[in-house]
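Figure 6 in text form: structure in, sequence out.
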């Protein structure tokens, strides 16, 4: 059920995070899409499928406005990630409509339990 219905969409230019995250998601068979920033700004393009999905946005490159932009077109949770916890960035992300924020290492280590929680809440 999780493998077939749940899609994780990632917006990040961090090759180390993307590699580690893809490896971890592959262990559990999660569907993973890496999305280009430019695709989000295209008006007529719905890059997030109608399936159960989340968007993960790398905040280390100042993408704070993406949560609202993604939520305008889609009703999916948007999570922010950063390399090191930063109280100020965490507060700004919350103000800008991010549902949750994580350090990159915490997300990698917790992705299975996060996905299971989201899927069980959706049922």
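Output sequence:
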């Amino acid at each position: 059920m999780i493998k077939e219905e749940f899609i994780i969409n990632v917006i990040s230019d961090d090759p180390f995070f993307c590699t580690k995250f893809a490896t971890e998601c592959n262990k559990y068979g999660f569907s993973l899409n890496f999305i280009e920033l430019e695709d989000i700004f295209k008006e007529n393009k719905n890059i997030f499928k109608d399936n159960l999905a989340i968007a993960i946005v790398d905040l280390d490159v100042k993408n704070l406005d993406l949560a609202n932009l993604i939520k305008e077109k889609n009703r999916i949770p948007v999570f922010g990630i950063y390399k090191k916890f930063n109280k100020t960035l965490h507060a700004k992300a919350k103000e800008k409509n991010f549902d949750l924020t994580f350090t990159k290492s915490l997300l990698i280590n917790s992705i299975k339990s996060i996905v299971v929680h989201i899927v069980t809440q959706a049922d």
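Caption detail: Helices lie at 2-5, 15-28, 37-41, 66-73, 87-95, 104-122.
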